[in-house]
Amino acid sequence: MNNLLKLEQGQARLVADDPWVLVRDEVPEGAALILPLASYAPGHGVWLGPDDEVELLQPWLATLPLIALDFPSFRDGRAYSQAYLLRTRMGWRGELRAIGDVLRDQLSHMRQCGFDAFAVRADKSAEDALKGLAGMSVQYGRSVIEPRPLFRRR
Amino acid sequence: MYQYDAYDRALVFERVAQFRDQVERFIAGDLSEEEFLPLRLQNGLYLQKHAYMLRVAIPYGTLSAEQMRTLASIARDYDRGYGHFTTRQNLQFNWIELHQVPDILERLAQVDMHAIQTSGNCVRNITTEAFAGVAADELLDPRPLAEILRQWSTINPEFLFLPRKFKIAICSAREDRAAIMMHDIGLYLYRDDQGEMLLRVMVGGGLGRTPILGLQIREGLPWRHLLSYVEAVLRVYNRHGRRDNKYKARIKILVKALGIDAFSQEVEEEWQYLRDGPAQLTDAEYARVASAFVPPAYASLSDTSLAYGTELADNPGFARWVSRNVMPHKVAGYASVVLSTKPGISAPPGDVSAPQMEAVAEWAERFGFGEIRIAHEQNIVLPDVPKEHLHAVWRLACEHGLGAANIGLLTDIIACPGGDFCALANAKSIPIAQAIQQRFDNLDYLHDLGDISLNISGCINACGHHHIGNIGILGVDKNGSEWYQITLGGAQGKHSSLGKVIGPSFSAAEIPDVIERVISTFVRYRESEERFVDTVQRIGLEPFKEQVYAEQPA
Fold first, then answer.
1. Alpha carbon of B24: minimum distance to chain A alpha carbons (Å)
2. Which residues does UniProt assign to the signal peptide (chain B) (predicted)?
3. Residues of A at the B interface (Cβ-Cβ below 8 Å)?
């Protein structure tokens, strides 16, 4: 099991039957792989590291089943900007999954930047992490899921 | 000052609840030290040599009398009876117990205060000058845009894990008293001929290991685009700033690597997607925030007060204090008073006790409109004092140890907490400051010397801003012992410059003599009333080096 949380119609749930296999190094045979950008093959999902330029995905967006963004460390914030660009500038509407050092206390930031699936780090409880998704009720600035800053809403 | 509404209040209280839970999970072992670290930093909590230190945000250095009393109560109930004002207009408590932090934050929230993003690799406290809204040379009030930026940068989800800390300052007076050139983003706000508010945007300034002054990236940016433009800069930085080495992670290194033109082009390209979007500021929002900064109900006073004039003439001590510590005000009959937190041996620079905080709160109400400012030089400002009350304020300030007549003089030392507290420091700062203050304790002589800034940092992180002190002192480690390197010629403001090292470093015991030799060289070469920094610029470092490193007679 992938320790996965997903947002569907704004509702978060634990996913027990996620079919996707994340491939970091070797390339196994099989369906539903999430492949690194360098070994991307049609029909599979793809994951990007923080050094990868999201703009490279533009030609494949119409056919990609899933995009994952890696947090090699939860303190590396580049995937937040990658998520912003994918969602707001490139128009990606499919699943955007956070992988890597994905922890409860950053989940609400990820959600606000447009992630809708969260593969919580394997040694942590996904059920516990669920508590971190909501975050705070007030957000001053804007985000992917609320593009109007508070000053346009207050 | 800005008044919280239900949104602002909900945010600070929810943040306290969130951090309370995080502290409990850390204490219970559910969060590792590594996982907890950025969470506590973004709530202002450092682990220092002896205890936790909590840095409380004082947005653009403005606080009310009630807020000052709350700080005093925290100093009394949770610390050792005092706090330390910093060069970024914040307040630090040095002796804090982790399990009490949520209660302290809750007490702060009750008076619309917080410690959010006073540390961590995120946008920090937005700063401006202590005389915002009252300075005689002010072009317009920087505080509404500072508050708008504060809100926008608070828990902005995309920019909480930047490569490194990010500091923004804004200035809108003729003189730059906000050290704009040494910020990651520095903003000069002014009006054009049609009266429109525009911004000159500087980027990539910073001190630390690689001191660099900011470079201009944009001229004439209409104020409505402030947030989208800053967002563009931050996105370029977040994506491309270095993360492999914390000493090369500030935006200044990225700007230097790309060159200002290429960096500027990246930002402009990003900005084209954002401009004229929902981040564009509205007149309504500006008006809403600016309404909190309307001038208070000033009395119509004569600019000359007979009683004040008489006291000035009769009391040289008072006159001397007025000449240094009283600043011109834009409203006739009023002045701004700087209360010095640099009394010398009795307290380290920036340290203020709970009784002093309470006294200041009382004076702010009695003589002003209940408002207090913190200057980046770590002093306290009463922004609105009728001239007829200056003498009374001076008497009270002297009684409470806040009346030193030394603003801008050699003993108005800016110093970080240094090796006495800080886990990063190579060397102590406070005893060096106090030894210099003791050596130069003749006020007449100090006043004759005129404007000299002296800044001390206990390590290369440069919290004491030693690079921009006319005299800079940097603590360095040599084989496990504490040494001090001297720089001369640094300056802040619109003519900012970085000081240059004069030569090999000195032991702590040598420093007062070294400073004395620097000063005697200045006195020898000074032309009429020339300022120290001007003499250094005119004659160069050589005469100072010769004197400082000359064989001294036994």
1. 13
2. none
3. 74-78, 80-82, 84, 89, 103, 105-106, 108-110, 112-113, 136-143, 147-152, 154
Closest to A140 measured CA to CA, from B11, B59, B165, B237? B11
* Inter-chain residue contact A140 with B151, CB threshold 8 Å: yes
Residue pair B181/B263 in contact (Cβ under 8 Å)? The answer is no
**Residue indicated by tokens 């919580």:** A120
Set out the domains of chain A in order of their start, with CATH numbers: 4-152 (3.40.50)
Task: Tell me how far apart the terminal alpha carbons of chain B are, to the nearest angstrom.
Answer: 59
What chain A residue is nearest to B8 in terms of C-alpha separation? A138
Location of structure tokens 């996982």: B35
Residue A105 to residue B158, Cβ atoms within 8 A: no
Over the stretch B220-257, which tens digit does the pLDDT of each residue have? 999 999 999 999 999 999 999 999 999 999 999 999 99
B347 contact partners, CB below 8 Å, separation of at least 6: B341, B353, B401
Strand pairing category for A117-119 and B62-64:
unpaired
Residue B133 is given by DSSP the state T
In chain A, the largest separation of any two C-alpha atoms, in whole Å, equals 53
Percent of chain B with pLDDT over 70: 99
User: In chain A, whose CA is at the least distance from the CA of B122?
Assistant: A77
Contact B425, B458 (CB under 8 A): yes
C-alpha Rg value of chain A to the nearest Å = 15
Mention every residue, 6+ apart, whose C-beta is less than 8 A from residue B285: A151, A152, B148
Residue to mutate among B239, B266, B267, with most A CBs inside 10 A, is B239
Ranges of beta strands (E only) in chain A are: 4-8, 11-15, 21-22, 33-36, 45-48, 66-71, 95-100, 117-119
Q: Residue A68's beta-bridge partner residues?
A: A47, A97
Angle at which helices B226-240 and B251-258 cross, to 10°: 80
Domains parsed from chain B with CATH numbers: 6-110 (3.90.480.20), 143-290 (3.30.413.10), 306-399 (3.90.480.20), 414-549 (3.30.413.10)
**Residue B509 burial (CB < 10 Å; 0-12/13-18/19+)?**
exposed
CA pseudo-torsion sign B495, B500, B505, B509: negative
A110: chain B residues, CB-CB within 8 Å:
157
A111: nearest CA partner in chain B: B157
Sign of CA dihedral B245, B249, B252, B258: positive
- The model's confidence at residue A98, banded by pLDDT at 50, 70 and 90, is very high
Per-residue pLDDT tens digits for B372-392 = 999 989 999 999 999 999 999
